[in-house]
Amino acid sequence: MNLESLRDYALALPGVTEELPFGPDTLVFKVMGKVFLLAPLDSAELQFNAKCHPEKADELRSRYPDVKPGYHMNKKHWNTIFVNGSIPGDLLFSWVKDSYDLVVSNLPKKQREELAAGG
Predict the structure, then answer these.
(1) Residue 27 forms beta bridges with which residues?
(2) CA 77 → CA 4, 14, 25, 52, 115, distances in Å?
(3) pTM of the predicted model, to two decimals?
(4) Spans of all domains in the chain
(5) What does the CA dihedral 89, 71, 105, 28 come to, rounded to 10 degrees?
(6) pLDDT on residue 119
(7) Which member of 26, 72, 100, 111 has the greatest number of CB atoms within 10 A?
(8) What is the signed CA dihedral for 74, 77, 82, 83, rounded to 10 degrees?
(9) Under CATH, what is the fold of the domain 3-110?
(10) Is residue 87 very low, low, confident or very high in pLDDT (cuts 50, 70, 90)?
């Protein structure tokens, strides 16, 4: 995984937009206006923050040394993942999708229906 493949994957998910609301150094991906993925553009190695169920977040942190509590985020619900080859790419992409799904599941019903309808 590299930044381009992470970006392509995130933007292929329904209803996703990318923004730079925190300045030019942090790429933010949102679904229906809600953040599900952040990637700093100024770090030496690729890393990203993804939302996660608290129990799963703890499990991932204990299992993978390159999964840390979310930097500048609610550490109960967010992980920072360092991408350096120690974690398979398909697993990294699945965590991005899990983050997306978690945010979508918490959207109001009307927004979930709009998203499902392709809006």
Answers:
(1) 39
(2) 25, 22, 22, 5, 23
(3) 0.93
(4) 3-110
(5) -80
(6) 62
(7) 100
(8) -140
(9) Aspartate Aminotransferase, domain 1 (3.90.1150)
(10) very high
